[in-house]
Design a protein that fits this description.
The chain is of the alpha+beta class. Helix content is 28%, strand content 19%. The radius of gyration is 21 Å and the shape is globular.
């Protein structure tokens, strides 16, 4: 749809293979902020993620780009923006804590019980260490979310959302159940779990257990479907290593994410482990990963 808008308003653009700035999954245009009519095509629009970024002056909201490009009043610009994103779930590039929102915690949170500790040990974790480093707790038999591990999600030191992981081995159990929009201050889908504890380098994983296995410096996106807000958070770190699960679908999404991050300053790599996922990797493989990427990060 973005390409159709460009054609409708006769705005020059380039696709993959047509210019050296063009990457797969991106449409390049002259940046309306720092290179109007320059024919250098510094600004890119990600078809996969619906975000815009300039090689020179950095990221901009799609609405601000449309406002600069199109000679239309704000009302029509908003309708055009809705058209471009009609096939995407509405989401914000950035999201701040909203004052009238409050955090609602699930019923039954308490200390880790014996079944929680046994489950974690079975997966190769030390329960006391996870409690100390990540603030996890347990949910016992009571409540709708029975026998789960409670995982707080923080932003700048404040718990703003949460998720839970079932410890049941039954195949029909939903593994992760997270806070609804009414229960969280900031949507967990717009956050990177573990970002508070990361520095220059981040290793991007799918889930909290992957983060725990790798340690400080790892972040997770809560699945392979990455939102624009998360990409902008990733772009703040100069070195990004994408370490999704080894299955083909996850690796395909990892490559898409690498393309989206490739236009931002810094370096982006895709890393594939021998294990199915970081959470199941051997201590030797994790040490090797940390030595390679996080020693100076």
């Amino acid at each position: 749809m973005f390409q159709e808008i460009l054609e409708q308003y006769q705005i020059a653009y380039r696709l993959e293979g047509q210019h050296h700035h063009c990457r797969p999954g991106w449409i390049q245009i002259d940046c309306p902020f720092c290179g109007r009519n320059s024919e250098r095509f510094h600004m890119g629009y990600s078809v996969h993620y619906g975000i815009t970024n300039c090689w020179k002056c950095g990221p901009h909201s799609l609405f601000s780009v449309l406002k600069e490009l199109l000679p239309e009043p704000p009302g029509k610009l908003k309708r055009i923006l809705q058209q471009i994103r009609k096939d995407k779930e509405p989401e914000h590039i950035t999201e701040k804590a909203v004052k009238n929102r409050r955090l609602v915690l699930p019923f039954g949170i308490g200390d880790l019980l014996k079944p929680h500790r046994e489950y974690l040990r079975k997966r190769g974790f030390i329960p006391k260490e996870l409690q100390r480093l990540w603030g996890i707790q347990g949910i016992g038999q009571e409540g709708k979310l029975s026998w789960r591990i409670f995982i707080p999600i923080s932003e700048e030191g404040q718990t703003v959302s949460w998720t839970t992981r079932s410890i049941s081995s039954k195949p029909n159990i939903i593994r992760y159940i997270s806070a609804s929009k009414e229960q969280e201050i900031i949507s967990h889908k717009n956050l990177l779990y573990g970002q508070d504890k990361a520095q220059n380098t981040i290793i991007i994983c799918e889930g909290p257990f992957d983060v725990w296995r790798i340690g400080y410096g790892a972040v997770c996106t809560f699945g392979i479907r990455v939102r624009p807000a998360q990409i902008f958070r990733m772009s703040k770190h100069p070195t990004r290593i994408i370490c999704f699960d080894s299955e083909p679908a996850a690796q395909q999404e990892a490559r898409k994410l690498a393309d989206a991050l490739g236009v931002f300053p810094g370096d982006t790599y895709v890393c594939t482990l021998d294990a199915k996922d970081p959470a199941g990797a051997s201590e030797k493989e994790i040490r090797k990963l940390r030595r390679r990427f996080l020693e100076n990060g």
